[in-house]
What does this fold into?
Amino acid sequence: MSPHQRPADRPADRPGDPHGRGHAVVIGAGLAGLTAARALVNSLDRVTVIERDRLPQGPGRRPGIPQARHTHTLTAAARQGLEHLFPGLGQGLIRAGAVPLRVPQDLLLLGPHGRLPRFDCGLPLLGAGRDLIDAVLRERLRTDPRVRFLPATRSAPCGPAATTPSPACGPAPTRGAPPTPRAPPG
It folds into this structure.
């Protein structure tokens, strides 16, 4: 069975359905939001990612990620953690244009006493812009039918604090109205 398939004996998540595993809403489609969505998706029926910016197809600049213009590096530990959530991610990033680096062998580093000597100390990094890293993670999540993206959407409170409808939560409750009764189980 594919990890994206729902077992046949578990019904779809419906409000009030005691057999569903639930729905999570993640606010933000940056690195933290994308990794949170991936971590949640195997425990829940659905995950909705709300993002204020429009999401480009592939790498592209977004107003909400101003630091994306410079190179970011994934350390071995960061890559290992991301590989746990997104198996094969390192090779996917390299195919998309990320650059493997060895520190300090592949970099010119200037310290307080001058240049650091270049040698192989076994510290591998992966260099890429945030727009590339985010795009590869986003495309991985887009292939999962349990994940839904709501780009160009502002987040709003859900539940009793909601005053306006939210695409992730449904219509806002009417203030002062009694809660909708649920049918007794069974």
The chain is about 25% helix and 20% strand.
